[in-house]
Transmembrane protein
Amino acid sequence: MENNLTPSGPDDARVVSGLLEELQADRARLVEKVRAPKWLAPGFGLIAASYVMTPPFPGEGAGGFVLSTALAAGILLVALSYRVTGIKFTRFGVQAWAAFAAAVVGTLALFSVSLGLAASGLVWWIAIPAVVAFVLVCWLASLIFSSLRERLHYVR
């Protein structure tokens, strides 16, 4: 039985080498064409800002409603990003996981600050941590997408 994967001569080795070079060129072109949708990072930023702004909302269930809505909106943004780019990112690298953790921890820290401001009666000052959350999560979301984009070079 013949094995077509092992080169039997110098011509076959050149053919295999040429195919591998074409594959690398295709991956490089794919990485260049994949761009994050312009609404992706601001969308995640708005989700974080809306969560940070929940303490002054009336009612006991407002925080839970905003959290549920934020999670659903985040899933929707990821699904829409998949539809727009056509690429499903299944594995995060260390840098993307670190940025994701920083986004979650930063949003929770800013939520804590807004809780303190609301308890102090400084409701209008909650806009400051909300804006900081928006900027922080926008930056981290774009960092995550660029990290995932660079990982396309090494997809198997």
In short: The first helix runs from residue 10 to 33. The radius of gyration is 23 Å.
